[in-house]
Give the backbone structure.
Amino acid sequence: MKRGVFKTKSDFIFYLLLMALPVVQFCIFYIYVNINSILMAFQEYTLTDQGGIFTFSGFDNFVTLFSGDKFKDLLVMGKNSFIVFAFTFFVGIPLALCFSYYIYRQKMLSNVFKVILYLPSILSGVVVGLIYLYFMDQAVPGYYLQFTGKEMVPPFSENLFKFSIFYTVFFGFGTNVLLYVGAMSKLSDSVMEASQIDGANSLQEFIFVVLPQIFPTIKTFMLTGLAGLFANQASMYTFTANAPRSMSTIGYYLYTSAKSMDYARYTELAALGVALSIITATVTFSIRKLLNKIDPMEN
Amino acid sequence: MKREYINKQNKTTAFDGVLLVILLLYTAFFFLLLLWGFFTALKPSDFTITDNIVGLPEGHVFQWEWSNFITAIAKIRAPYKLENGDAGYYGVGRLLLNTIIYAGGNAFLHTIVPCTVAYLCVKYPCKFSKLIHSLVLFTMMLPIVGSAPSMIKVMNSLNLYNTLLGNFAQNCTFLGLYYLVLHSLIQGLNKELWEAAEIDGANQWAIYIGIILPVMINTLGLVFMLNFINFWNEYQVALLYLPGYPTLSVAIYLLSLDQQPFFSWLPGRLASFIVFIIPILILFLIFKDKLMGNISIGGVKE
């Protein structure tokens, strides 16, 4: 450490004392936990007379995961995770940007919409999610019966995955909208006025002036969304703790499996986590390089 | 956000029109959900789904089942299981206490720890501080999948699993978006603030606690509130790591498994939901301007 940064010894002690706890916490709950996760991926859990023990088992967990029916299930859940990501990436982000632009330009009812878009991230996800579930499964068939006289099978259970995606995108604008509006509010007046003088309409201004200038903020959300690709449950656990594999995502599977408190499964989960982390890291860093290349502000 | 050019650019285009329609539909659907939930909560407890599922409760407004809200508060409960084998149900009083401790304690840590580390990194820009700053950015982008089993194993081995101390230790972290927000804010502070105090002979503790924290109190209050709301609503982490200290959010989630007749009926469950969101709704309505003020994450650009 450069002693020049610390004017006195008491400065250094102050720094050390305040930095100690967060750094120790980081070392235990981030570094050690993740190293332990990698180690568990190469272990198996065995019950003995003295209790359960973890022993080295080589690549057995990876072989089990990437062969047979388990692998087929993982492929289905992985596909579902990608579908959820695709909807949040290609539908959710563009919609959030459009809504943010509308609010930034203070168009009609923009203050109301700002509150409404933010409200789902303030209210309990359990409450909003379960009201949505009961509404879809009970009120919608009720309205259908009232208007058409025909009965309708409750749609939610049969279409859990589709309804989960809709819910995730529809109620997921929240803080993103505020951050995009915040980024837009920092745009240079002169650049915006210049586009107006050049005759750009609102759509042209949005695409050719606003989006390029807030691209760093968009890039951050894209990359953090990509990093969470396999952690995203699409709010499914809110709706059910027993979703079929065909409708689950990897994130849902990981959480429900961890919650089972079955140590015998933990080593396989650790192996799955390691494999997926490597895949996601590779994809995230590659996409980051690509986004940096096309970033209008960097070029 | 008032800019002269916005006033000039005020004519509504087709693009604005399309966005307005989508936003109106969004608003209508969202309000329809909440209003349906609210009015269904006011229907009789022996209400069945074929009987007026979509309309208003029957009778005069004073004849609606407002007592459902009181009954929901009285009957809500959640199972707990401690490491010493104790198990049972907690009622609303204990659930509320658990929630306040869980949300308040974790919100405080999630605010003060990033703030402290951000201040240290700005005030003392040594190599270690730069490493810490890079770690925050790096961990935001680095995907770690499936570490929950390892976390449970580590916490068990440290005798921290299913303890409030363990939960607070988990959340005593500087990683995350709020570090960047606070780092950006502290960078923007006038350095003369603490330089003048140093000249006057104040030690670093006095400067941090007596000058820096008070100057940042508005933003810290906002960050605390956002964290508090997040932890108040959060249930999955509590379910996984704190089965012995269920919160109100956990109780709400587990209502579908509750065998009490009141919660097997839709109005009973919905009444519990409405009661649960009222405190946060009130908090939001009072502080909505601050909560939705411009948040910036300066320093994210590398």
About this structure: Chain A has a mean pLDDT of 89. The beta strands of chain A are 43-48, 51-56. The longest helix of chain A spans residues 68-104. The longest strand of chain A covers residues 43-48.
